[in-house]
Amino acid sequence: MLLPITQYGDPILRVPCAPVEHVDLEMNTLGVNMLETMYAAEGIGLAAPQVGLSIRMVVIDIPEDEEEEMSMVTVNGEQRAMRDIMPLVFINPELEPYGKQGLCTEGCLSVRGIRSQVMRPERVRAKLTRLDGTVLEIDCGGLLARCLQHECDHLEGRLFTDRVSSAARVTLTKRLKNLLHRGQ
Ligand code: NI
């Protein structure tokens, strides 16, 4: 089932999300629906507040051809192909970004039509709990590291537009204002 995607200006995108206490059948259905919604919108990640739920849950699916050289990822200490762990549906993530800062263009399904360069650490160590209770300890770079940081920002009520450099901010602020008016 496709869920409506919360758009920029909706206050739920600005609230830190609550931890998921227990996983029931409803959560599994939500995971399936979030993936379906993300695929339909041609995104690679979607966080629960983007479908109107203020809980710490995220789905990610990074297609293989997006970033060939980073298609390997360390999972629980072992080198694995990215496709082996996709799609990811997880709750209560713990993230530790590290390494040098890198610039990358980001967009967001909740901020339609706007893409901007964002600086973030290039690598991430992450502890992700899947809905079946298994825990993945991931060490990665590339698009997955970028996507994990972007989605986990959503869980804190942060958007990629908050992280844009001050030089790009003037243009961005104007475009965001237009987006708000369009949405009304
Ligand atoms: Ni986003």
Description:
The protein has 184 residues and is α+β, with helices and mostly antiparallel strands. The chain has a single domain (11-183), classed as Peptide deformylase (Peptide Deformylase). Helices cover 28% and strands 34% of the residues. The chain has four helices and seven strands. It has a seven-stranded antiparallel sheet with strand order 1-2-5-6-7-3-4. The two termini are 25 Å apart. The model has no long low-confidence stretch (mean pLDDT 93). Bound molecules: nickel (II) ion. Nickel (II) ion is lined by residues 108-110, 150, 154.
CATH superfamily grouping: Peptide deformylase
Q: Write down the overall mean pLDDT.
A: 93
List of distinct ligands in this structure: nickel (II) ion
| CATH architecture label | Alpha-Beta Complex
Quick description:
The chain is of the alpha+beta class.
Question: What labels would you give this structure?
Answer:
single chain; 184 residues; alpha+beta; Peptide Deformylase; 7 strands; 34% strand
Please describe the topology of this protein.
Blueprint: H1 25-40, E1 45-47, E2 57-60, E3 72-75, E4 78-81, H2 82-85, E5 88-108, E6 111-130, E7 135-140, H3 142-155, H4 166-183
Antiparallel strand pairs: 1-2, 2-5, 3-4, 3-7, 5-6, 6-7
The structure holds nickel (II) ion (NI).
